[in-house]
Design brief:
9% of the residues lie in helices and 30% in strands. The protein is mainly β. The termini are far apart.
Length: 77
């Protein structure tokens, strides 16, 4: 048969200080979207959205999990 081949995109990233790193496989050509739900608008500030990866959960690999914490931006003033 002439079935369609599944294409994936390898994604890598890290936190701001690079202590936590991840990699995964995405199932879409553009594997992210901006989320404007009430939770994202309330928690991320700025443009009022968060970037959500459209990736395959089973392919997620995280290094530095012991460093995961909540980030609080500092404002001088």
């Amino acid at each position: 048969g002439g079935g369609m081949k599944e294409h994936t995109m390898h994604l890598t990233g890290s936190c701001h200080c690079n202590a936590v790193r991840f990699q995964c496989e995405a199932y879409a050509p553009v594997p992210y979207l901006r989320c404007h739900c009430s939770i994202c608008r309330k928690t991320v500030g700025g443009g009022g959205f968060a970037v959500n990866l459209g990736a395959k959960t089973g392919t997620l690999s995280v290094e530095g999990e012991e460093h995961i914490a909540k980030f609080h931006a500092t404002i001088d003033g």
